[in-house]
Amino acid sequence: MFTSASNFSDNVDAVFLYITILSLIVLIGITIAMVYFVIRYSRKRNPVPTHVEENLTLEILWTGIPLVLFISMFYFGWVGYTDMRAIPADAMQIKVTAKMWQWSFEYPNGLKTDTLYVPVSKAVRIELRSTDVTHAFFIPAFRIKKDVYTNKTNDVWFQSEKIGRYDIACAEYCGLQHSAMYSAVHIMKQKDFEQWFTNASAKAGLKPLVVAQVKN
Question: Helices 56-85 and 9-40, interaxial angle, to 10°?
């Protein structure tokens, strides 16, 4: 956690931490109340059952407080979700095809690779398709995951400011070798990416189209 590997990492980690802390507070509160009532109203201390009248204030509190807390969880989750769906118009377009049990990445000029290479500080839109069963495109360090279907095209996007290598996994059980369905995304300096893209395109007999430029 708290790696800031992509533009979504910090927000997802913050929401996760927020929900975890609220859950712990609720758990501790309920546990304390339960222990108190077990002791306070035990048969030994209270041999004759006590009739408790309704208390409107308490009923409002124990209904209103959890409602506000859960709505706040929904709100922060919704804000994060809308950010994940707001794909920049100038995002670099890459098609990803999933099949048992590998990933294939296709760049705008037709270059296909089994590993994803993208420049740093550039928004990247991933267009997802499957040729067989349901898969799930998952980059743990970026906090993004999207299901991949045979009869539907899904998309997801990210932008990373940290140069490095990050795992890509399938997060949906897709057969006997599901656990081996791994690849990686390499975040590169713009100049290094352009050099790699030019060389890889030349080896494949393709023109090295300009597919990404980082805004100044």
Answer: 160
Tell me the CATH class for 9-85: mainly alpha
Alpha-helical regions (H) of the chain? 9-40, 56-85, 190-203
* pTM above threshold 0.90: no
Q: Looking at residue 211, what is its pLDDT? A: 53
Inter-residue long-range contacts of 189-195, CB under 8 Å, 24+ positions, other chains counted: 189/119, 189/120, 189/163, 190/119, 190/120, 190/121, 190/122, 190/214, 193/117, 193/118, 193/119, 194/119
The reported pLDDT for the residue numbered 133 is 95
Geometric angle at alpha carbon 205, from 202 and 207, rounded to 5° = 65
The residues spanned by each domain of the chain are 9-85, 92-203
pLDDT lower than 50: segments of the chain: 212, 214-216
- pLDDT score of 210: 59
Q: What is the pLDDT of residue 1?
A: 63
Q: Mapping DSSP to helix (H, G, I), strand (E, B) and coil, where does residue 167 land?
A: strand
Instruction: Quote the tokens at residue 97.
Output: 């095809």
Class of domain 92-203: mainly beta
The number of CA neighbours under 13 Å toward the Cβ of 63 is: 6
